[in-house]
Amino acid sequence: MNPAPGPQRRFVSLGTKLAAVTSIVLVLISAVLFVELSAREHAKLIAAKTGAAFMVTQLLGTELRAALDFGDTADIAAQLDHLHTNADIVAAAVWSNTADTPTAQWTTGGGPANIAPARDQRDGASVSSEWLVATETVVNRGGIPVARLTVTFSLRPENEAFQASRRHLFLISGGLAIFTAALLGLLARRYVISPLRRLSDEATSLANGKKSSRVDVTSDDEIGDLTRAFNVMGAAVVARQEQLQGEMDLAQRIQTAILPRSLEVPGLDVAAAMLPAAEVGGDYYDVLPVVDGCWIGMGDVAGHGLDAGLIMLMMQSVVAGLVRRDPGAPPSDVLCVLNEVLFDNVRNRLKREDHATLTLFRYDRSGRVVFAGAHEDILVFRADGGACEVISTPGTWVGARRDIRRGTVDTMLQLRPGDIMLLYTDGVTELRNAAGEELGIDGLTALLERLHTKSTALIKSEILEALGAWSGAPDDDITLLVARYTG
Question: Are residues 133 and 278 in the same domain?
Answer without folding.
Answer: no
